[in-house]
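Notes on consecutive records. When two proteins share a document, each keeps its own sequence and its own token line. Never mix them. Below: protein one.
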Amino acid sequence: MTDSVALMADHDRLARARAGAERVVSRVGEILLGKDREIRLAVCCLLARGHLLIEDLPGVGKTLLARSLAAALGLDYRRVQFTSDLLPADVIGVSVFDQQAGAFQFHPGPLFAQLILADEVNRATPKAQSALLEAMEEHQVTVDGQTYDLPAPFFVIATQNPTHQVGTFPLPESQLDRFLMRIGLGYPAPELERELLRGTQRRAMLAGIEPVVTVAELAEMQAAARSVHLAEALLDYAQALIGFTREAPEIEVGLSPRAAVDLLAAARCWAMLAGHRGVRPEDLKAVFLPVAAHRLRSREQVSSEHQQDLAQLVLDSVPVP
């Protein structure tokens, strides 16, 4: 009887979490039309306590997605425009000497918010990009030997222009690995673009968005996602995928243990949104490309599209147990 009660309570918890996540997806979908899969991936990334990289051309809705998520979740939102002259202190904050107090006082930068949009992150120099490293991994920053905790939740959405564009500094592997997912948005379908052209400006609609979950409910949703069951056979499949990336001759650098953990965390979140009580192979497949592609390297790599092809090769080559 006790096991039955616990099982029922766990089922109700997952159902509440899924309902909350669906409300967020629906509300953001009212602003960003025709991008249901991309919105779901972004929500999964947040529920998995990761960070999101969006790579695409300017003007396709990258900033709109970030602002819509912040509004639907009721999160404190800050935007940092990454430029070639940006300094780490412009992001983290700076200590200023207070003559009256006779001591340095720390003035927090825009990084001290719940949802950070690092816009066009690859237009800044590597030194400025590195300002995000400790924050994304440890949810804290260190200034003049003093450590400061960042707010919870802490979610970074970074956008970057395609690396072939002029004035970009490619993100190093260590920074790319901090992003749980990389996605693109692409152009809208013609019928949806016609609706955009006829209707109200989507940015103007942001002012009317009310949060559909509280911060406390978001924390419960994140905890519920971590409880989604992982069967041994599913772990076998995940390890087979990861192992293939490390052994395939086409791939020079495979997935790290951190990437493996991220893959399973994202799969759990996707399974929860799909209403599955345990992770299924299709859940793992659904998140594999967004989680894995930007972490794979080959000697012939020339673009992010090539990375997508590598990740697809892994999925096509490894059979489901």
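Protein two starts on the next line and is unrelated to protein one.
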Amino acid sequence: MGTCVWGDRRYLWRAFGCAVLLVALSLPAYAQQPNTIGDPSQTITFGDILNAPDDLELNFNYARQEASRGNLSGASTALERLLLLEPEWNTARLFYAIVLYRLDDLLAAERELLILSDRRLPEPQALEVTRYLSLIKRKRQRLHVRGFLGIGSRYDTNRNFATNLDGETDPILVLGLPAITFIQPEDDFSYRGFAGLNGRYKLSPISRHALYFRTSGIYNEQDTIDEQSFSDVYGEVGLDFDVRVLKVKPHVIGRTFAIDNEQYFTEAGGGVTLERSVTPRFNVSAFGVALYQDFNSIGVASTGNLRTGNRIQTGASANYAFNARNRLGGRFLYDDKAANFSPFAYWNARIEIDYLLLLGRGSFLKLQGSTAWAEFDAPDPIFSPTLTRRDRRYVSRLSVGSPVTAIGKVVGLELPESLSDLTLQLAADYRRQDSNIGNFSYDNVGAEANLIWNFDFGR
């Protein structure tokens, strides 16, 4: 039997395969656990409630149904009516407290939880009461900071972005003349670490207005193709306040990106985001950002200064919650990038769609897809003096995740509840770029595994 070393790809693939199997086994088992807000087995109308107002079970299932559909106000009303009929029904009162919490009525939610805390409850319910009392205490704090730490590994089949064409379909050009590329796709593993913080400070104890910040960073080290190693650090600070029916978020942004320990670019600027909840299930937003990108620091005799210029991005998004577990989102983004040298300037339009399925208590499945169109402002004479580059890009991605406590149950381990915030996430993706200049056409299949710890300060 061979020795498993960090860079041995055979063992890394085996480890990744084992991780996929464990997460796959844990997802259905975990999703079947009782959920506080689940779907009733049948559709119940308000007319059914009017015909049987004293049917406790029917009223309870109606409340569960409405909560699952996102109608928390309707669920709250049904549960309030139910508790007037049966005030000692602890399960219904706990459900009522959770609905109130999700409605952001913290005072009423705390009142119901304190009533339950004086009663003799089964251990699972007692733990839920304690957990939500703790959540309410944290939510009332004016300063709330949440963070994450993670490590992971990724595999790419074409890490050097070599063209997938032979020059027969679309031209591979050098100085405008057809050429044959000798650069072949190279696969590679990378190892990564990442971290981030998100903070929010309420401007007053009862105000919804707040200052916020978010920052994140990743360091990615390639196993073989060292020149593709990178680090990426992002920061954002802004205000979040309500103006009638809108949430307005003015903010400033900064980012720095380095490749192989050499600065590639920095950018800084600001923008504003407008959000509106059209219904409890449906919300929309629009945003605009103006940034200045500086490529001056790329090498001593580089063309970095030619790429330097402003970047304007605008976009809009919409999100719809089918119920408490299924969400669909879409975004449209448009970029206009200026540069000191027009062949490096471009516009880019992108459409993104994602679907999120929550499987309960931290387990999830997410599908993402996007397509983009890009066109540069002028021909690049290095490739062609007459042909202006145009690209079409496609990305599809599937990711799943589950807390390690759920995975532990699959293999017969009872891990402590303190590890429930530690999640194993697995993903696979496909990226493709088609260009009218074959030099820039490529595709890549990737897979990654990440272990992520989410935490709250002051928890």
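For the record: The CA atoms of residues 356 and 368 lie 9 Å apart.
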